[in-house]
TrEMBL record:
Localization, UniProt: Mitochondrion inner membrane
Name recorded for this polypeptide: Mitochondrial carrier protein
Entry's Gene Ontology BP terms: transmembrane transport
Start and stop residues of the Solcar repeats: 1-81, 97-185, 200-301
Biological source species: Kingdonia uniflora
């Protein structure tokens, strides 16, 4: 219960940045309303008020708890299976996971968790993009899910799933791999006197988590932009932020992931693939660092001996 409350509070604290990121990712390049993080937050405050900063946060909080639970559980199980197979193949019962194997375990965990909660993420994106000028307002997660099912069919709940899966591999995989590899390197080399024994300090582990978050989200970010844009395709009541007009069908239609990449780069340039990276970095890097450290601390408190690196 405490972990769930902590996750909800942390997500709520950065909700304005999360909404700003998504709005920057999907806004129509012919109708620019948000020119940056600060200007965009001020615009939302003026046009939608305080509540506008937190639009979509309820759905995000409902999604993040099962997503995190499934992700960490899946990582533990995938790590055990991969390690067992690796030891059998090498004949070394003392062998440990290599960075590449950790990357694979992390990727498996990310794909499973993302797929299990993807419909919630899809409607969360649409609720987040809604503005006061949208012709139809989703009343919440349940209303959004039922409306999408009724108007667009079940498959619509998984629009953008493919780039999400592809993005999860470097994102979650690199998060786990970089975090664990950095910890191992610090313990073995003890550079600059930062590590005195095999038990890293909370500050050092936070730094490892921050580095992991930076690498993972930078590599995978273009796929996140494409995912969000594909989620908006076919939305009959799209926000004017997306359409560039007063609602209606999304102006740019994508036939698939490759087509979305091609049209985005052709129409807006390569930099469009990193729209919203600044607010995303501000919230993601520290949150990933805290998530890893909290996970390990809780396991220590509960007396669970096996760590992620095992």
């Amino acid at each position: 219960m405490g972990v769930r409350k902590s996750a909800v509070k942390s997500r709520t604290a950065v909700a304005p940045l999360e909404r700003m990121k998504i709005l920057l990712q999907v806004q129509n390049h012919h109708n620019i309303k948000y020119n940056g993080t600060i200007q965009g937050l001020k615009y939302i405050w003026r046009s939608e008020g305080f509540r506008g900063l937190f639009k979509g946060n309820g759905t995000n909080c409902a999604r993040i708890v099962p997503n995190s639970a499934v992700k960490f559980f899946s990582y533990e199980q995938a790590s055990r299976i991969i390690l067992r197979f690796y030891r059998q193949q090498t004949g070394n019962e003392d062998a440990q996971l290599t960075p590449l194997l950790r990357l694979g375990a992390g990727a498996c965990a990310g794909i499973i968790a993302m797929s299990a909660t993807y419909p919630m993420d899809m409607v969360r994106g649409r609720i987040t993009v809604q503005t006061n000028s949208s012709p139809y307002q989703y009343k919440g997660m349940v209303d959004a899910l039922s409306t999408v099912l009724r108007e667009e069919g079940f498959r619509a709940l998984y629009k953008g799933w493919l780039p999400s899966v592809i993005g999860v591999v470097p994102y979650v995989g690199l998060n786990f791999a970089v975090y664990e590899s950095l910890k191992d390197w610090l313990i073995k080399t003890r550079p600059f006197g930062l590590v005195e024994d095999t038990d890293l300090s909370v500050t050092t582990r936070l730094a490892c988590g921050a580095a992991a978050g930076t690498v993972g989200q930078t590599v995978a970010y273009p796929l996140d932009v494409i995912r969000r844009r594909m989620q908006m395709v076919g939305w009959n009541h799209a926000s004017s932020v997306v359409t560039g007009g007063g609602g209606g069908k999304v102006e740019v239609q994508y036939t698939g992931m490759v087509d979305a990449f091609r049209k985005t780069v052709r129409n807006e340039g390569f930099g469009a693939l990193y729209k919203g990276l600044v607010p995303n970095s501000v919230k993601v890097v520290p949150s990933i660092a805290i998530a890893f450290v909290t996970y390990e601390v809780v396991k220590d408190v509960l007396g669970v001996e096996m760590r992620i690196s095992d």
